[in-house]
């Protein structure tokens, strides 16, 4: 008899959603995006998470991944076009799609998944300098603690509820 083998497939869903303009109308306004992650993969500390990141942080992440991945190619980010024909909304939507495709490819790559900076980027609200400090062991928490702390605090979810009119 053929034996039925059930393999639990590891699935990771990552979505880039809900672009918001921060500091609107000021010279230092920028757009940030909600990154929602849902997974059953053992690679991740938290099974679901929700953080907000801006394009500049994605650029930093990609640079770090590249440094550590050796010869493994890191997916591309959508271009940093300062000159764009069309509406801002269209530009933001194109960028959102590009950022989502970038993350989808990254989380499917075993080598990139082993980089703890990626995990802190996706599953904690630490800033870039705080992520660097944490990875180098100079933060007050370990990588896992920082992620669990954020998951337990539930800020990712609470913040969403409160910000609705």
From TrEMBL:
One GO term (biological process): vesicle organization
**Name assigned to this protein:** SNX11 protein
What PROSITE patterns does the record tag this protein with? PX (PS50195)
- Write down the SMART domains for this protein, in alphabetical order: PX
| Domain of life, source organism | Eukaryota
User: What are the record keywords, sorted?
Assistant: Cytoplasm, Endosome, Lipid-binding, Membrane, Protein transport, Transport
Coiled coil spans: none
* Location in the cell: Cytoplasm; Endomembrane system; Endosome
What is the native source organism of this protein?
Chionis minor
Which gene produces this protein? Snx11
| GO CC annotations, alphabetized | endosome
Q: Does the keyword Plastid apply?
A: no
The Swiss-Prot or TrEMBL record describes its family as follows: Belongs to the sorting nexin family.
Q: Which InterPro entries match?
A: PX_dom, PX_dom_sf, SNX10/11
Which Pfam family is one of those matched by this entry?
A: PX
List GO molecular-function terms, semicolon-separated: phosphatidylinositol phosphate binding
Per UniProt, what is the membrane topology?
Peripheral membrane protein
């Amino acid at each position: 008899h053929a034996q039925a083998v059930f393999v639990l497939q590891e699935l990771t869903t990552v979505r880039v959603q809900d672009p918001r303009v921060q500091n609107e109308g000021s010279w230092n306004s920028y757009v940030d995006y909600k990154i929602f992650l849902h997974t059953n993969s053992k690679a991740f500390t938290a099974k679901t998470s929700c953080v907000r990141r801006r394009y500049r942080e994605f650029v930093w992440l990609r640079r770090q991944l590249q440094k550590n991945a050796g010869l493994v190619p890191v997916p591309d980010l959508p271009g940093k076009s300062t000159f764009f024909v069309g509406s801002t909304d269209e530009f933001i939507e194109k960028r959102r799609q590009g950022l989502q495709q970038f993350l989808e490819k990254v989380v499917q790559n075993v080598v990139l998944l082993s980089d703890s900076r990626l995990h802190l980027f996706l599953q904690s609200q630490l800033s870039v300098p705080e992520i660097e400090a944490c990875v180098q062991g100079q933060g007050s928490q370990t990588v896992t603690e920082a992620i669990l702390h954020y998951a337990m605090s539930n800020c990712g979810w609470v913040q969403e509820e409160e910000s609705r009119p």
